[in-house]
């Protein structure tokens, strides 16, 4: 019996180094008929070009595929600390609705039943990425009749630990993975407690600069795996200004910056 479903692959492509693709990811690339890529504007052209370069590098010359580029609806900018959680989630939900509607149209128009489409997801699709949620919305539609598989990838957290040569977890201790927004809310409390290890992603405001404590180590990295990669580590109070300066330098050179950092309590390491 023929399969009239449209198949979608969400392929984790690592944190910026084309050599980080797994064998499973390369196999998935070579089974794909249409790649859907979101254009986030001129400032982030390099991210789009990186995905295109991965296709050229890892897809066999005799495999035919197409790239469909779609404009990415801009994410609403909400000041840190401004909304309550419910209001913030409502803003993000509306943004997801806009994106899923655009993707549904693109899949309907460009991917034939029985064909395979793919999204190349920075890092791993499971960690602070909305692609799985967007595709889940589409999978609920009887019109598209989608089948979906997720291919894991190396995350920026894993890469940051490897580059700094540190373990992610401390012996017998927990790990918190959070966003800059949530960490800011935490440190705004009168008496806040951090776990032994705190990993912070999606932080455009370098929240670590607002932590006034001398018992913490900072392990910071930006644009990992790219030509503009930078790493800084040391006692938080001693290296904060260096990290802030390097972040601005990278943004000026590359036109974009994606950083991630880990804070570890000194007595736990």
UniProtKB/TrEMBL annotation:
Matching InterPro entries? 4pyrrol_Mease, 4pyrrol_Methylase_sf, 4pyrrole_Mease_sub1, 4pyrrole_Mease_sub2, CobF
What GO annotations for molecular function exist for this entry? Answer: precorrin-6A synthase (deacetylating) activity
Swiss-Prot/TrEMBL GO biological process terms: cobalamin biosynthetic process; methylation
Which keywords label this protein?
Cobalamin biosynthesis, Methyltransferase, S-adenosyl-L-methionine, Transferase
Domain (Tetrapyrrole methylase) ranges: 8-239
Annotated pathway? Cofactor biosynthesis; adenosylcobalamin biosynthesis
Q: Which NCBIfam families match?
A: CobF
Q: What is this protein called?
A: Precorrin-2 methylase
Provide the organism lineage as a comma list: Bacteria, Pseudomonadati, Pseudomonadota, Gammaproteobacteria, Oceanospirillales
């Amino acid at each position: 019996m023929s399969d009239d479903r449209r198949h979608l692959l969400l392929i984790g492509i690592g944190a910026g180094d084309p050599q980080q693709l797994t064998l499973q990811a390369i196999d998935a690339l070579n089974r794909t008929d249409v790649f859907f890529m979101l254009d986030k504007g001129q400032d982030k052209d390099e991210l789009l070009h990186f995905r295109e370069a991965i296709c050229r590098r890892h897809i066999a010359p005799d495999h035919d595929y197409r790239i469909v580029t779609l404009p990415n609806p801009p994410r609403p900018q909400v000041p840190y600390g401004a909304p309550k959680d419910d209001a913030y989630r409502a803003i993000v939900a509306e943004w997801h609705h806009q994106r899923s509607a655009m993707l549904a149209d693109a899949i309907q128009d460009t991917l034939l039943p029985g064909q395979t489409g793919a999204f190349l997801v920075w890092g791993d699709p499971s960690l602070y990425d909305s692609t799985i949620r967007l595709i889940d919305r589409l999978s609920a539609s009887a019109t598209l009749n989608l089948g979906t598989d997720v291919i894991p990838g190396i995350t920026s957290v894993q890469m940051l630990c490897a580059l700094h040569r540190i373990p992610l977890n401390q012996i017998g201790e927990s790990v918190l993975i959070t966003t800059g927004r949530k960490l800011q809310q935490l440190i705004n409390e009168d008496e806040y407690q951090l776990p032994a290890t705190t990993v912070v992603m999606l932080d455009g405001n370098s929240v670590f600069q607002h932590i006034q404590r001398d018992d913490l180590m900072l392990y910071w990295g930006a644009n990992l795996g790219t030509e503009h990669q930078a790493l800084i580590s040391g006692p938080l109070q001693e290296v904060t200004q260096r990290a802030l300066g390097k972040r601005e330098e990278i943004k000026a050179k590359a036109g974009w910056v994606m950083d991630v950092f880990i804070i570890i309590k000194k007595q736990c390491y």
